[in-house]
Amino acid sequence: MKLGFIILAHRDLHRTVQLVRFLANNDCPVSLHIDQNTSLEEVNELMADLNHVKNVVYPKREKCGWGQFSIVQATLNAAEILLENHPDVTNVFMASGSCLPVRPIKQLKAFLERHKDIDFIESFSERDERWVKGGLDQERFTLYFPLSWRKYRYAFDRLIDLQRMLNVNRAVPKHISPHMGSQWWCLTAPTLKKIIEDPDRQENDRYFSKCWIPDESYFQSLVRNHSEHIRPQSLTFSIFDAQGKPFLLYDDHLNDLPKTNAFFVRKVWPGSHKLYHHLLKTKRKNFPLSNTNEEAFNEIFSRANAISTTGGKGQALQGRYPNSAVKNTSMAHDDFGVLIGFGYLFQDFVDWAREAKGLNVFHNIFKPRQFTFYKKIALAKGNLAADAKLRDMNPKSYLSNFLKSQRSDKCTAIMYDVSDNQKIIPDITRDECAHFVVVQEAWLLSVANNEMKLKGKIMQAKILQARERKILQALKEDKHASCTIFSLEEALNTPGLVLQAALQILDPETRAQPTAIPQLVDTLKLDRLVRKLSKSGVSVNFKPGKKRKKPQKSAKKEIIKPYVVK
Amino acid sequence: MRQMGIWSKYRLRLERKRRRIRSLRKRRDIECVIDRSSQTKPNDIFLFATLRNEKHRLEFFLKYYRRLGVNHFFFVDNNSDDGGRELLKNESDVSLWTTTASYKRANFGVDWLNGLQSKYANGHWCLAVDVDEFFVYPHCDTRPLQALTDWLDSSSAKSFGALMIDMYPRGNISEAFCDEGKNPMNVSPFFDSGNYFVERNEKYRNLWIQGGVRQRVFFKDKPERAPALNKIPLVKWSRGCVYVSSTHSILPRSLNIVYDEWGGQKACGCLMHTKFISTFVDKATEELQRKEHYAASREYKEYAASNVEMWTRFSTRYKNWKQLEDLGLMSRGGWA
User: Do the domain assignments include residue B331?
Assistant: First the structure.
């Protein structure tokens, strides 16, 4: 067998020289096409460098434009001259000047020897989703593309819109069945010859010259008419990024390169000295294809694509500042709880949750004025200080930093009450990682138990009530954060149920564990306050129960008895 | 996003022109010591910096950035008397200017650099850093700067953002002594990893980031006055570009959008700021008298007032770019 190469090059020709020389030395004839746009100076330099290298032929040069037929024309020119000058060639490998062999040529030759008569070319029909992801698919074949996308992006797009509006539908010649796939193929010489010498060649060329990106469809379609055995696989590894340009390979990819299931890779950054040095060594050992782990290699690139398109949950940094129209942009990596009203209801909820349940609950970090995270802890991981001025400067960033500092296998929850700084509320209610558990009107307890005079209490109640309504309204409207609401009545009658709901958010595995509930605050003055409030025109949902037994000392004792949470 | 009206766009254009003219005028204040810019090639990467009495940092600084792949250095020396000027003059890849004019009145040196850049940097990728700042970008341990700028070119990006991270020693600053030619990041290796606050400046559309150790220690009572840490140190310069305040923001405004607005992450780096080594102590005394620094030299005042400990048990020791990426301070974005 004899393996010939078609190489298309347009820049960094010093690297192309290295590749061509390497291939020629491996007894592979090369047909080297250099873009007509490349400067004369560079071309002369290349010619001088390759002067003494045998086995290289130079086809007629075309001015190549990305996505245009000129690239196909260049390939055809190169194929013609290669087959003409080297009639003994049995397989032709199509590569670019920035490709490099990841496996020795010897191994490639042996592989092709084993797969005689097989054409390795990705060739997927337009209905196959394996190839085109977004962008134009079928329309590549039925619209007109007279403009260069690179030069006239705007006009290019408007022209397509116009054609869609006018229902332009160019007829596909009957003998052509549109297929697409990677530009980098390896065909047997007979198949390639048949494509070049196709009796319909003129019609083919005329048709494809009006298609979009014909270098990904010309050979891929026509091979269907001329080949006996197609294997829709490219022997060149090439992967595209989210912008649609090929990922570049660098020195640090060297150790991962053998993981790919291909013989060549594209595209290599021209400054990768190590890659050029290692991959173009004359004596290299075969690396069996059976040892590949292509997925692990692809992972590097799919991860970069994921980072650049969706950013990753909870990532808030200098390179990511989503505007308000973007969804799924939580400030947190993990779900977190926001417990509203628990601080008013239970005397020492935080201590209880932390000690009895081993949960990651924090005091009100949005308390007006000074606060600590827990007991006397005023500094969190990452050197975030518990400082009200710092927090109020940018509450959202602050909470985001705080949640990041508390990342662990346990779920984090913060206590929040209606008397706290309200600036943070719109940011949390919009956050899909936030889970609210609200004991509505629990603030009544705080108003009832404080030392103020009645007038002050009424004022305070009005303010807190308005705030609470605002929060609940926001939760209802935003629909991102989850929310469980209990009335104060429920909470007082069945505190266990409320606790259970809170705990389930914090730690789903706590279910059915018996536990003592934390101590409720004094509810003696509650009913009286509510009656007074309603007299002065402040109506609350909580009904002072006539039937309710006046809380007695014995009743209070009853409540603090161990309570089983189901 | 709120769309800007034609009027405000026009006003920004005027501002850009005004700043540019100012920088051309201020260029007259600086005097050329040696101009080797004729040696440069079209694809070279340039570095621009101003300095004053920082000779002890220069050897390592040049070494660091040469290793990254900076091809030519442009320095403006603000009246040094420690021999730094003479050192730089003899380096073969340095062009040097000197001035006795006021640093503060040249918009903290920005005017001088804008002036030089508009003359020499057209069409080049340029780094603008201080001599105590070390640029760290994704893959910087294995890929030279040229790899980054090539990738940015192919991604049609014209600027690259970096978060400035203040580094500090454990214990007394005056004991963090860094020998000439040695890496100051080794004597001052700690930083704060989780206290950065991000907002957006709607006028210039750059992000405004504050935080780090300086906010925590020196601006405790006025955190909103803490210095900005968002920087755009790497720019493909074209005539008409102009830095606005330090390298925090630049005009035209499109260059400020070094962040992704649609949920993704853009590639970005960090500037490791090694101000806090033993020489800071003398500098604090000197600068307090000169009053040539931003926000009336507040850090120097604070420092002079109390010899604070910056280190806490939550301080992080700097390792490499991957660590910074894991901490969410920088990102490789789509650059695999």
Answer: no
- Chain A contact for B144 (CB, 8 A cutoff): yes
Taking 50 as the threshold, does the pLDDT of residue A404 lie above it?
A: yes
Q: Are the Cβ atoms of B198 and A379 closer than 8 angstroms?
A: no
- To probe the interface with B, which of A309, A320, A404 has the most B CB atoms within 10 Å? A320
Question: Residue range A131-150: average pLDDT?
Answer: 77
Assigned CATH for A3-128+174-299? 3.90.550
Chain A residue numbers touching B265 (CB-CB < 8 A): 307-308, 311-312, 315, 317, 319-320
Which residues in chain B (262-301) have CB-CB distances under 8 A to chain A? 262-268
Percent of chain B with pLDDT over 70: 95
- Residue B251 lies inside a defined structural domain of this protein: yes
Q: pLDDT confidence of A553, banded at 50, 70, 90? A: very low
Beta bridge partners of A236: A264
B57: domain range? 6-326
Question: Domain segments of chain A: what residues?
Answer: 3-128+174-299, 337-559
Predicted-complex ipTM score = 0.93
Residues of A in contact with B194 (CB under 8 A): 380-384, 401, 404-405
Decide if B325 contacts B270 (C-beta within 8 A): no
Contact between B264 and A301 using a beta-carbon 8 Å cutoff: no
Please count the other Cβ atoms lying within 10 Å of the Cβ belonging to residue A244: 9
Question: Is A304 in Cβ contact with B197 (below 8 Å)?
Answer: no
Q: Burial of A148 by CB count in 10 Å (0-12 exposed, 13-18 middle, 19+ buried)?
A: middle
**Residues from chain A contacting residue B201 (CB–CB below 8 Å):** none
For residue A175, what are the contacts with CB-CB under 8 A and spacing of at least 6?
A200, A225
**Helix, strand, coil shares of chain B as percentages rounded to 5?**
35, 20, 45
Phi-psi region of A422 (alpha: psi -120 to 50; beta: other; left: phi over 0): alpha
Do B207 and A321 lie within an 8 Å CB cutoff?
yes
Q: Shortest CA distance to B209 belongs to which of A321, A385, A322, A406?
A: A321
Cβ B334–A304 below 8 Å, yes or no?
yes
Q: What is the mean pLDDT of chain A?
A: 88
Closest alpha carbon within chain A to B213: A383
- pLDDT bin (cut points 50, 70, 90) of residue A348 is confident
As a 3-state breakdown, chain A gives helix, strand, coil percent values, each rounded to 5, of 40, 15, 45
Q: What's the pTM?
A: 0.91
Name the residue among A349, A335, A346, A388 with its Cα closest to residue A366. Answer: A388
Contacts of A39 in chain B (CB under 8 A): none
Q: Has residue A549 got a pLDDT over 60?
A: no
Distance CA A211, CA A26 (A): 37
- Pick from B161, B198, B332: which is nearest to A307 by CB? B332
Between A112-116, A127-131, A302-306, A469-473, the lowest mean confidence (pLDDT) is in: A127-131
Looking at every residue in chain B, the average pLDDT score rounds to 92
CB < 8 Å to A312, chain B: 265
- The number of folded domains in chain B is 1
